[in-house]
UniProtKB/TrEMBL annotation:
Matching SUPFAM superfamilies: Cytochrome P450
GO CC annotations on file: membrane
One Pfam entry name: p450
Name of the protein in question: Cytochrome P450 724B1
One Gene Ontology biological process: sterol metabolic process
Cellular location(s): Membrane
Keyword match Signal: yes
Organism per entry: Aegilops tauschii subsp. strangulata (Goatgrass)
Family as reported in the entry's similarity comment: Belongs to the cytochrome P450 family.
Catalytically driven reaction(s): campesterol + reduced [NADPH--hemoprotein reductase] + O2 = (22S)-22-hydroxycampesterol + oxidized [NADPH--hemoprotein reductase] + H2O + H(+)
One of the record's GO molecular function terms: oxidoreductase activity, acting on paired donors, with incorporation or reduction of molecular oxygen
Alphabetically ordered keywords of this record: Heme, Iron, Membrane, Metal-binding, Monooxygenase, Oxidoreductase, Signal, Transmembrane, Transmembrane helix
């Protein structure tokens, strides 16, 4: 009976020491705070904030400690950099001076075969496949037509909603639909697409959450959602193999034609493709629309440019790559929005 409190006290002391020991062992580390034992500063870091701001956590820490500081996030001692030049230097020297990695709890959601988790030669191999995806997709004659049809489908679904549209959510649906179409060959109308989207939304909510794997928590739900997505994609792969004569024009055929990847790596690659384009693309589209809404002059010039190009096309004719090249002002606006957002 007397031993129980002693054991509990020893465990607490071990927890506190393991949490704060890196502060004592790394005197040259940047200034900062480790927060509470185990939890660290994760909860403050995860506090939602407006997309066009750094958020209260980063703003407060940058003002206190500078643009590079130490913290304790996702149960891991962490150095956080908000310095653009340093970040560029790190990315330019990846696999030479620096090695990309994620906190271990995130590995539990992404899976051990994810391109975001693997290192060295495995990472290079998967990255080359990702480049092949981008290249082969852009070369497809149907690529731009697919995007246009999906955009029209999304916009068409707004009719009858009474004008209550959350644009950022619609942009996410658009980005997801484009990726699923190019990678898996699935259209937005197919039931399996809606099923994957529902699980993927659960996955995204848990990806950036406190890593507590207890039933009912966002983290635990995300792990389960990834398993369901994995099962769904494996089912699609098996169907393709059975119907070998019915080749489809998507990147899944590229994956199926290679013997370099295991089925688990192929599933992870599909999930990585969704993860890589879903949030980034939809957020950038939303930011462009948001900032255009603040400038009536820029919005009018973009509309005129689009209407001028559209007037040269037949009613059911899709836009071509040459049409997109003519959208010089649209491209200028998009680049300026990207610069403004990343600064």
């Amino acid at each position: 009976v007397l031993a129980a409190p002693a054991i509990l006290l020893a465990l607490l002391l071990t927890l506190v020491l393991s949490h704060f020991l890196p502060l004592l062992l790394n005197p040259k580390a940047p200034r900062g705070s480790f927060g509470w034992p185990l939890v660290g500063e994760t909860l403050r870091f995860l506090t939602p904030h407006a997309s066009n701001t750094l958020g209260s956590f980063l703003e407060d820490h940058c003002s206190r400690y500078g643009r590079v500081f130490k913290s304790h996030l996702f149960c891991t001692p962490t150095v956080v950099s908000c310095d653009q030049e340093l970040n560029h230097f790190i990315l330019q020297n990846e696999e030479r001076l620096f090695q990309c990695s994620y906190p271990r709890p995130i590995h539990g959601i992404l899976g051990k075969s994810s391109m975001l988790v693997v290192l060295g030669e495995d990472h290079k191999r998967l990255r080359n496949l990702a480049l092949a995806l981008v290249t082969s997709t852009k070369l497809k004659p149907s690529y731009l037509g697919d995007i246009e049809r999906i955009a029209l489908h999304i916009v068409g679904s707004w009719h009858g909603k009474g004008g209550n549209i959350t644009f950022c959510e619609e942009a996410r649906k658009f980005a997801f639909s484009v990726i699923v179409k190019q990678v898996l060959g699935l259209s937005p109308e197919e039931p399996v697409t809606a099923m994957i989207l529902e699980d993927f939304l659960t996955f995204m909510k848990g990806l950036i959450s406190f890593p507590l794997r207890i039933p009912g928590t966002p983290y635990a739900k995300a792990v389960q959602a990834r398993e369901r997505i994995s099962s769904t994609v494996k089912g699609i792969i098996e169907e393709r193999r059975k119907a070998d004569c019915c080749k489809r024009d998507d990147f899944l055929n590229v994956l199926l034609s290679t013997d370099e990847l295991s089925d688990e790596e192929k599933v992870s690659f599909v999930l990585d493709s969704l993860l890589g384009g879903y949030e980034t693309t939809s957020l950038m589209i939303s930011m462009v629309v948001y900032f255009l809404g603040q400038s009536a002059q820029d919005l009018d010039l973009v509309k005129r440019e689009h209407q001028g190009i559209r007037s040269t096309k037949a009613k059911e004719e899709c836009l071509s790559s040459e049409d997109y090249k003519k959208m010089e002002y649209t491209q200028h606006v998009s680049k300026m929005m990207i610069i403004q957002y990343t600064l």
